[in-house]
Amino acid sequence: MKVSYIGLGVMGAGMALNLGNGEAEGLYEFLACDANEASLEQFKERGLKTSTNIVDTTDSDYIFLCLPNLEIVKSVVLGENGLLNHLKPGQTIVDFSTISYLGAVEIAEACKSEGIEFLDCPISGQQAKALDGTLSIMCGGNEEVFHTIKPMLDRMGTQVLYMGENGAGQLTKMINNCALNICVASFSELLPVGVKLGLDAEKLGDVLMTATGSSFASKTLIPKVLEGNFEHGFSLGRAYKDMESMYEVLIKSEIPLPTLNGTMQSYQLALQSGHRDDYKQGMIKFYEDMLDVKVRKEGFK
Length: 301
What we know:
Layout: E1 2-6, H1 12-24, E2 29-33, H2 41-45, E3 49-51, E4 62-65, H3 70-78, E5 92-95, H4 101-112, E6 117-120, E7 123-124, H5 127-132, E8 135-140, H6 143-153, E9 157-164, H7 168-196, H8 201-210, H9 216-226, H10 236-253, H11 258-272, H12 284-291
Parallel strand pairs: 1-2, 1-4, 2-3, 4-5, 5-6, 8-9
Antiparallel strand pairs: 7-8
């Protein structure tokens, strides 16, 4: 059996290294693939085969992808020289990328018409979890194929869930991301109000990180706000695209979600104010500017 992995970026590299360990155990042949030659070095050091050409992966039984966005996934799978033009019925593509629900369904249908299985398996977790194999992985597609590849998925994640048919993995990830974005919007709006009305920023932040109003978002991002750190990580612009993808589904299904709509408006205010490339807690800057305050610990700007 041969297994390939395409996309060795921040998340993909760690995942691919964990998957590549299966070759040392004699379970399969492994190939790591990325257009960036430099990203292949750590795989070469481990004695694993590498390539910069996706066509070299097309003799694999299972091809795993971790790519930046829907456009690139479409290009790699459906493009003029994409995987689908080289694969044979019975092969499987497993996509860890975060793309839209409708996009995942479209790609899956194109693959199915050629006898190729496509599973959308977006991931949740930070780079450290990718490296130590403790990600959450949410999968949509053929359930029988899911159970076949689950031992490989278990090398990369500790929470590996089958969510349903094609698109179900992406829908799960979209809902999770939207819930996170709502939490970010809530503290971004309320922290500046507290500071404007005389509360200490650090003490108020401590309450929102520990009391009943706490969340993963507050615990992870408020410390960065208090130190004025708005760089690195998942930008406001990318976070907004997640909500756009969810909104497409809601429109098609005629489902009203007022809280999500309100959150999108908060993000729009921040985006229109020039904070698109800030990490998502950068939304707070819009409300700081509006109220003429800074939500910072003493000594930070």
